[in-house]
């Protein structure tokens, strides 16, 4: 009977009708808490099991307890003892010390144990609900501070912002809300394991608990971290933020902060004195940024970082260049002198420029490389560029964990909340092919965007809320408390080094001047700027504080200030000696040794020996070496077989030509990286660079990565569904090392619309503005094939419109005509019609003695078109890229009899070819293909026209007249022809939409185009 009674108690305990379970679930603090039981001690963790648990399981536990009471959890030991002593059903349960009222991964119920230990509960004795309620209330208070404390922290130096959503203190952090009165304030409560306010103390009076929570979470630092889904990471932050006096600095540290703050303030004051009417987007109001950045760099350097790539908007850039990077001041001051540029290009305003510096960090006594990327006024556009550059440098250094190379991104509050590319970039942070293993984000929070109040510029409580998506901790800090800022910077740098994840420092400050120095802010923010006018600069506040503490004297403060002003004056006088601006001094990643010793007009051959083509072709056409164990899709077996047949027949299609271009470059030691949405397979299921095991998850094989034992690495990676962010990333990757082929492929060519900012600001004009060359390749699927307005045109006309060659100037012919044109252009735009052209133009990117972006219209239907094939003879040694492919059929044999010479580009050639054949006009019409549209191949087009003296000239295109190539080529043909001949247009009429959505309308337009083509 005794044994039966205990078993009854056990089963009653885990039953949903158990009186203790009913009581516990009735409590507000435990409303969502399951009734927990525990495994035997041999288990690694407590395991909750709910209604319907196996009675056999608990009976076995009871049997174990009978043998050895220490073999079960303490809560079960207490239960079995009480049940054995005769406790009534439902009354034998004693709350276990580690029961978690807020989830087993968060808050153990150690605080349920009074300071003197858990009292035994005699059989039938009532539960002391007051003790339990009070301890649960303390738990709730601690957790509430951790979750909501930042809402009532003193973050704003101007004391005008209220970050609490309700406009008043959260009820959860007011102890009176938990029925505590003054008499309870000196009661001692045991602290849970998820708080570190006690340091080594395990229990504290309630008064001291509240005081320490206030200091940790509601002073000048507000922390958002409790949304992070890792107990380890949450505890790591608590351990560094909760103990008393964590922000306290020693006197040497305080003097260093003062010196750096003096330089930051002194630089802005010097510029304001010398160039009072110049726009410089100074840091006044957030001068603490400079000491903050230097602190992050110091700690990161101490933790092993050797190279830091930074991106930032224009506010504070000159100060960062001067006092963080230590760029020579005379080079900065020269930018104000209005001098002409010594380098080619148009240049850019001073607060858009970047730089690269390698210097000794005097605090850590280690060398550090610092780069600030150039970027335009599109404030956050540089974010993905920095990440791509960082990833590339990590790749080339073999820094697979990001321990040596890291990125810092600076943001304005309005831009951080408002610009979508911020999210796109942060969403790359943990993707395997894009991660940089943690970025430190620093927000210069001016609490205003140009003239827009935060209430009108974002819907979230904070400008930093986007970072919550990637579980990045967010440290809000009052910019007028330098020591609090330094502590936050220390923690952020250590976080990044420890967890290799993003972290955000939100420096809440203000903007002392308007949007720029000549702007009047009182027009739109009169009350804010009345408060700002009365606010002492942070340097004065901190200097007064240190003088009062006896750390420095007023004379020492003045001496530091005077010394820096003299440094600025000396640099100012040196700048007067300069006669030109040298934009090469502002490169953010110089390509050491790339240009030296090269003939800038000599291009290496792009043809390849046939043995290499065959080897690559066979490897690319073969199943994985362990084909017996690696099961691939049956459809792929047919594709591989067809590829092998092409290799044996010495022909290639588009995918095979691409693989041969990539593979031959890999053989030569050139790293190839192909990135974009679905590039591993290819949008049109043509590429298949990554083969997937059909029965084993994540088992893949990439033939191009295993062509040769000593080849360069090949990276092919599907990206997130982002164009703006990913293209920016690849641009950054491409500028890091010139000896790499970096390609971004749009899923459809029109998707580049979403990345237009990167195209306009970094790719088209990057070299002109910043002397920054890039060899990035944009693959843009293009072709009018009845797929509707969004999947037809890659907007070829836009790229051509941005080409910088003069339509009224025809360069004189010379032996190096092709290379000279490429040297002088801003980018290359091509619409290839053959796999061989694609092969050569990709290899030419590396063969050139310089780097230019390549915009390449790529096909869709031509990927499998039976006539869109090339022979090995077109790719062997001695062959090269043909900018114009002349007529090679019957018409070329009797050029005098040709009545029409049609020029075209891309896939429309095959439509024209078929129409000519169907109409029996092979002798009457010659067709020449312009493979490279820009820079315009005047020399080869001129030669082709000369062959057919009796032919009328026409330009045929599939796009509408106001789109495609017509607007670009027509004035250049006019310059070439000098009014001796007329060039007619053959194509679709003008339109607002790039294509019709009706298949029938599409076919009618195509018939009209082809019928007109045949009119002689």
From TrEMBL:
Biological process annotations from GO: glycolytic process; tricarboxylic acid cycle
The Transketolase-like pyrimidine-binding domain, residue ranges: 652-865
Cofactor needs: Mg(2+); thiamine diphosphate
Name of a matching Pfam family: OxoGdeHyase_C
Subcellular location: Mitochondrion; Nucleus
Main location per the UniProt record: mitochondrion
Keywords: Calcium, Glycolysis, Isopeptide bond, Magnesium, Metal-binding, Mitochondrion, Nucleus, Oxidoreductase, Thiamine pyrophosphate, Transit peptide, Ubl conjugation
Keyword Translocase: no
Gene Ontology, cellular component aspect: mitochondrion; nucleus; oxoglutarate dehydrogenase complex
Role of this protein: The 2-oxoglutarate dehydrogenase complex catalyzes the overall conversion of 2-oxoglutarate to succinyl-CoA and CO(2). It contains multiple copies of three enzymatic components: 2-oxoglutarate dehydrogenase (E1), dihydrolipoamide succinyltransferase (E2) and lipoamide dehydrogenase (E3).
NCBIfam families, A to Z: 2oxo_dh_E1, PRK09404.1, PRK12270.1
Similarity remark: Belongs to the alpha-ketoglutarate dehydrogenase family.
Entry protein name: 2-oxoglutarate dehydrogenase complex component E1
Species annotation: Trichoplusia ni (Cabbage looper)
């Amino acid at each position: 009977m005794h044994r039966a009674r205990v078993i009854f108690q056990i089963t009653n305990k885990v039953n949903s009708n158990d009186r203790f379970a009913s009581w516990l679930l009735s409590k507000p603090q435990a409303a969502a808490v399951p009734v927990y039981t525990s495994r035997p001690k041999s288990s690694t963790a407590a395991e909750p099991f709910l209604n319907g648990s196996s009675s056999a399981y608990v009976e076995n536990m009871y049997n174990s307890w009978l043998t050895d009471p220490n073999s079960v959890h303490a809560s079960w030991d207490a239960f079995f003892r009480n049940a054995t002593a005769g406790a009534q059903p439902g009354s034998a349960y004693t709350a276990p010390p580690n029961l978690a009222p807020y989830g087993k991964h968060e808050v153990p119920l150690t605080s349920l144990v009074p300071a003197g230990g858990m009292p035994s509960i005699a059989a039938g004795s009532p539960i002391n609900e007051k003790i339990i309620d009070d301890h649960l209330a303390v738990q709730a208070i601690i957790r509430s501070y951790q979750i909501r404390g930042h809402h009532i922290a003193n973050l704003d130096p101007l004391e005008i912002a209220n970050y609490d959503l309700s406009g008043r203190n959260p009820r959860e952090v007011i102890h009176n809300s938990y029925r505590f009165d003054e008499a309870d304030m000196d009661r001692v409560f045991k602290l849970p394991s998820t708080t570190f306010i006690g340091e080594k103390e395990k229990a504290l009076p309630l008064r001291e608990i509240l005081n320490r929570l206030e200091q940790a979470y509601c002073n000048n630092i507000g922390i958002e971290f409790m949304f992070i889904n890792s107990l380890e990471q949450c505890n790591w932050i608590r351990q560094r933020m909760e103990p008393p006096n964590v922000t306290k600095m020693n006197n040497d540290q305080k003097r260093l902060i003062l010196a750096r703050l003096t330089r930051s303030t002194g630089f802005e004051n010097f510029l304001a004195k010398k160039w009072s009417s110049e726009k410089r987007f100074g840091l006044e109001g957030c001068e603490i940024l400079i000491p903050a950045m230097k602190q992050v760099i110091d700690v990161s350097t101490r933790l092993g970082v050797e190279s830091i790539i930074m991106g930032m908007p224009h506010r504070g850039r000159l100060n960062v260049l001067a006092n963080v990077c230590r760029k020579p001041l005379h080079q900065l001051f020269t930018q104000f002198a209005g001098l002409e540029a010594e380098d080619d290009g148009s240049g850019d305003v001073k607060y858009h420029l970047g730089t690269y510096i390698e210097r000794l960090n005097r605090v850590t006594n280690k060398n550090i490389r610092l780069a600030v990327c150039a970027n335009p006024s599109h404030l956050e556009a540089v974010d993905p560029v920095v990440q791509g550059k960082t990833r590339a440098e990590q790749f080339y250094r073999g820094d697979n964990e990001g321990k040596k190379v890291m990125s810092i991104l600076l943001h304005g509050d309005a831009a951080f909340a408002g610009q979508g590319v911020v999210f796109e970039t942060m969403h790359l942070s943990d993707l395997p092919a894009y991660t940089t293993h943690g970025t430190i984000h620093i927000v210069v929070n001016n609490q205003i965007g140009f003239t827009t109040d935060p209430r009108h510029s974002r819907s979230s409580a904070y400008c930093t809320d986007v970072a919550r998506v990637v579980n990045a901790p967010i440290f809000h800090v009052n910019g007028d408390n330098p020591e609090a800022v330094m502590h936050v910077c220390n923690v952020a740098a250590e976080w990044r080094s420890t967890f290799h994840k993003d972290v955000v420092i939100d420096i809440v400050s203000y903007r002392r001047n308007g949007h720029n120095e000549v702007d009047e802010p009182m027009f739109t923010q009169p009350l804010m700027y009345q408060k700002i006018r009365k606010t002492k600069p942070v340097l004065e506040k901190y200097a007064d504080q240190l003088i009062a503490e006896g750390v420095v004297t007023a004379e020492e403060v003045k001496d530091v200030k005077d010394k820096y002003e003299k440094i600025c004056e000396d640099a100012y006088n040196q700048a007067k000696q300069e006669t030109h601006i040298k934009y090469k001094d502002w490169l953010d990643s110089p390509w050491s040794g790339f240009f030296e010793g090269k003939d800038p007009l000599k291009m290496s051959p792009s043809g390849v020996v046939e043995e290499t083509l065959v080897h690559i072709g066979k490897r690319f056409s073969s199943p994985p070496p362990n084909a017996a164990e690696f099961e691939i899709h049956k459809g792929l077996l047919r594709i591989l077989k067809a590829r092998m047949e092409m290799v044996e027949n010495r022909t290639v299609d588009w995918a095979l030509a691409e693989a041969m271009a990539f593979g031959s470059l890999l053989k030569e030691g050139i790293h190839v990286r192909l990135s974009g949405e679905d590039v591993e397979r290819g949008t049109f299921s043509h590429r298949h660079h990554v083969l997937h095991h059909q029965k084993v998850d994540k088992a893949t094989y990439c033939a191009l990565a295993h062509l040769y034992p000593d080849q360069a690495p090949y990276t092919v990676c599907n990206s997130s569904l982002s164009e703006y962010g990913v293209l920016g990333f690849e641009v950054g990757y491409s500028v890091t090392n010139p000896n790499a082929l970096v390609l971004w492929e749009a899923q459809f060519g029109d998707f580049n619309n979403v990345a237009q900012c990167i195209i306009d600001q970094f790719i088209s004009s990057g070299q002109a503005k910043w002397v920054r060359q890039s060899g990035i390749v944009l693959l843009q699927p293009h072709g009018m094939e009845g797929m509707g307005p969004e999947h037809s045109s890659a907007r070829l006309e836009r790229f051509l419109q941005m080409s910088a060659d003069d339509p009224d100037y025809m360069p004189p012919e010379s032996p190096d005509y092709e290379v000279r044109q490429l040297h002088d252009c801003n980018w290359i735009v091509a619409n290839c019609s053959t796999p061989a052209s694609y092969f050569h133009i990709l290899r030419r990117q590396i063969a050139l003695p310089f780097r230019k972006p390549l915009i390449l219209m790529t096909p869709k239907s031509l990927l499998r078109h039976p006539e869109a094939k090339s022979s090995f003879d077109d790719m062997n040694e001695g062959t090269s890229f043909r900018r114009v492919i002349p007529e090679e059929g019957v018409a070329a044999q009797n050029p005098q009899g040709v009545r029409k010479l049609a020029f075209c580009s891309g896939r429309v050639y095959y439509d024209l070819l078929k129409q000519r054949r169907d109409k029996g006009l092979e002798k009457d019409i010659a067709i020449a293909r312009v493979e490279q549209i820009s820079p315009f191949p005047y020399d080869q087009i001129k030669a082709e026209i000369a062959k057919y003296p009796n032919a009328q000239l026409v330009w045929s295109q599939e796009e509408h007249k106001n789109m495609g190539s017509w607007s670009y080529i027509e004035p250049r043909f006019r310059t070439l022809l000098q009014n001796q001949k007329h060039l007619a247009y053959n194509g679709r009429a003008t339109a607002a939409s790039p294509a019709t959505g009706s298949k029938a309308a599409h076919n009618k337009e195509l018939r009209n185009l082809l019928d007109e083509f045949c009119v002689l």
